[in-house]
Amino acid sequence: MNWHTVYKSPIGPLTLVADECGLRQVHMGTPDELADPGTRDDEALGDATKQLREYFAGERTVFDLPLAMGGSDFQRSVWQELSRIGYGETISYSELARRIGKPGASRAVGLANGRNPLAIIVPCHRVIGVDGSLTGYAGGVNRKRQLLELEARTLLEHP
Hints:
The protein is of the alpha/beta class. It is 34% helix and 18% strand. Helix 3 packs across helix 4. The chain is globular and about 40 Å long.
């Protein structure tokens, strides 16, 4: 059984979906856009909402939540490596592919990155083009820019 809540973030509504195993999804949009968001339960997702609020306030650089990620072994390896990218840092898709031991798999890494169900929590926004361009973000390039600018600003204010 799934539960959801909606957090009104500075980049728009975020629908958080969880089950008894942990947070399953952070969707940039409303629950009516999802196949099965489950029942609304703001209390069950209170800690996730609190941590996102702290992130957007510049008070949190690392999330500490139980996660329940699906996906293939390859996708999970990409998502695990995404979690190792430091706050305010960026790497290229080719660097991400190299880090998971698949240096020729930049395109597959990009696809897995785009299917990350836990945007922001698993920071897929920190992966950029090899030329520094802000390419390929499921939430839109404008949101990607906003998240990277938030992290850069926070690091300047709190080194």
